[in-house]
Amino acid sequence: MADSPLIVLLGNDDDDDDHRVLFDGVRRCGGRPRRVHPDELVTEVTAEATRFLVDGRDLAPDLMFGWVYEDYLILGMNQLETARLAGIPVVNSAMTLLRGQSKYLNSALLHRAKVPHLPVLWGRDEDTLAAWTAERGYPMVTKPLMSSRGRGMHRLTDEASVRHHARGIGPGPEQYYVQPYVPARHRDTRVLCVNYQAVAAVERVAPEGTWISNAPGNTRHRAELTPELRAIAEQAAESMDALFAGVDLACDEQTGQWCVYEVNTCPTCTATFRELGTDPVPLTELASFLVAAALDFDGARRDWRPATTL
């Protein structure tokens, strides 16, 4: 193991600002960061060994960190799992990233772990959806199975809108994913967790004229990381095996109860914390954890604790 461990982030440059902050933190902690695009990585698998190459040169990471989603999710998952099978420690593994992208798996895992979460229905059958929503009441919210930043979300307010949505589902494997609407004053809270431990919380308020709190143009504020919020978020992150996670929650204004919407496994935060006038603490804490995990993966999982929380 090198004294200055090589930490490879597998991802593209869509979240470049976050990667720069993370890499600065890795260097301060004594590590060597490098981003490798999934298209750049060449893998040789033989009976003797697995090799990774970039530009024809061997790449020997001490740890790989997965930051792939949407178009590069499946390719990146294969590469991360191959690295894990080759004995390289992986943070946010192939299955973790799939769980974070798939609202199917998000819901199944959250309910399995007894995390407060909404009932959901997914599938294609129109009549089943109409009966389910009528029984539970309106409004309902529908989301694409794999999306981010509020894209493709709609409110369903009656049976006609439910049936219209079901009939609009395209061919192939696309399905509906529907859950009750939470009256939360058009706001939610994202809790950032590292090694299943909450380090910061941010409240997000929907832009004027919309109810989607994570849509572009939303307003963000520091949120208090209360013991209740911390406990729910940490349990949610652990249910996904997400060593870096953004847990999205809302507080029902009618019941006062928190529920988790979903767990994001590639959460951006640099722009948010700059807007709030503070350092992006989740990324500096993540850098500390990644270097510790590159040097001793099991020990870091067991013993690492954040130095700062917001």
Compact description:
This protein is an alpha+beta fold.
3D architecture notes:
By secondary structure, the protein is an alpha+beta fold. It folds into three domains: 6-95, 3-Layer(aba) Sandwich (Rossmann fold); 119-180, 2-Layer Sandwich (Dna Ligase, domain 1), CATH 3.30.1490; 187-303, D-amino Acid Aminotransferase, Chain A, domain 1, CATH 3.30.470. Helices cover 34% and strands 25% of the residues. The strands form four sheets. A five-stranded antiparallel sheet has the order 14-13-12-15-16. Strands 2-1-6-7 form a four-stranded parallel sheet, with helices on both faces. A four-stranded antiparallel sheet has the order 8-11-9-10, with helices on one face. A hairpin with a 2-residue loop joins strand 12 (187-194) and strand 13.
Task: Draw up the topology in text.
Blueprint: E1 6-10, H1 16-28, E2 32-36, E3 42-45, E4 50-54, E5 57-59, E6 63-66, H2 73-85, E7 90-91, H3 94-101, H4 103-112, E8 121-123, H5 126-136, E9 140-142, E10 154-156, H6 159-167, E11 176-180, E12 187-194, E13 197-205, E14 219-222, H7 227-239, E15 244-251, E16 258-264, H8 270-275, H9 281-295, H10 297-303
Parallel strand pairs: 1-2, 1-6, 6-7
Antiparallel strand pairs: 3-4, 4-5, 8-11, 9-10, 9-11, 12-13, 12-15, 13-14, 15-16
